[in-house]
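User: Second chain of the day. Same drill as before.
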Amino acid sequence: MKNKAFFLLASALLMVGSGCTNVKPWQRGTLADYTMRADRDPLGTAQAEHIWFSREEASGGRGVGGGGCGCN
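Assistant: Same format as last time:
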């Protein structure tokens, strides 16, 4: 039990310690590259929309909360 608690604590510290970083102004151009965009693949976006529609029985709604149940 003690070993498991140590592993969980070490994992949590690693995640918290490596999650944030400062970005220098000259590095922002790399992060703003076209390849970093989530919508750069129109076919992948269309497939994700189709899967979302099939599961949730809803059309659109990618940018808003709620699901196909109408409980926004």
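The CA atoms of residues 48 and 59 lie 12 Å apart.

User: Great, on to the next one.
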